[in-house]
Fold this protein.
Amino acid sequence: MLYPSELFLSAQGEGDSVFEAEMDCLSKISLYFNTNVQTASTLARTFLEETQGENYLLQSKTETSESIQVSAQAQFFCVQWEKPIRVGEKFYAFAYMNRDDAFRIYGQRIKICADKLESILISAENYNNPIYGFEAVQKGIAIADLTEQYIVMASTIQRTAPGYFSEEENLCKRIRSAYEICKANLIFQIEIENDLNGGVKRTLGKLLEAEGYNVSDVNGECKILGVINIEESQLEAGSFFSGGIEINIVSGTGEKIFSWSRNVSKTGSPNGKEKIGRNLFYKKIQNELEENFTAEFKEKVKL
């Protein structure tokens, strides 16, 4: 079937299966927009999660990964398909896009993304609460990436005047600026009661710094307030230590953002060597932090 280039964008793909042929086709489409199939896959997932929500998650669970991958990118690019054919051992897929229709749909999606960015910026630019600001801006970055790609695609499939999407481009710039400001403002000050030689505090600090966040002894916008509860029992067999740790993270306004607690298994040592048992107890606290704290904190506040 003939698709005049002034009206359509089309591509032909081939492979050892229909899936491979369709993915080859999508790869050629993506190159036209100066991207690649991996990036397009990520952006397509962002688009479908934002627009379809629970329906997309349900679809992802019920359909095969191959069909989801093809369907997501086809919807992302606004691709339509001819029926695939088989010639010998090879399969061939044919995709096409009507330039006017695609430009109109891209424009609608850019507008949807821009509305979402404006809403997100309300929280993202609330620098009094950098954790929630950063949570918002992380989502905003993904939508900004999607918006910018759609602007490229719209401007590629049809010529647009300079500055045609300037308002939307400015929203993307604001999101990226808010990201840097929130990141810089997100400084944690750690205070741990009943710590042993500052070991638990240092462990928490290293965990946060490993994630790219700043820790200060005096200037933290967000405070990490921890209490280690330790009970010592003197028995004939020796000294035993039990308890755990409770952590609360509060914003500069005093709002509690995150709570985390763990009890650790009892440790012990012979009488007269209580230091060994006590050190083992604190080591278990540190191990719990290293194994669980960061992941649970990030899941809660979406950092």
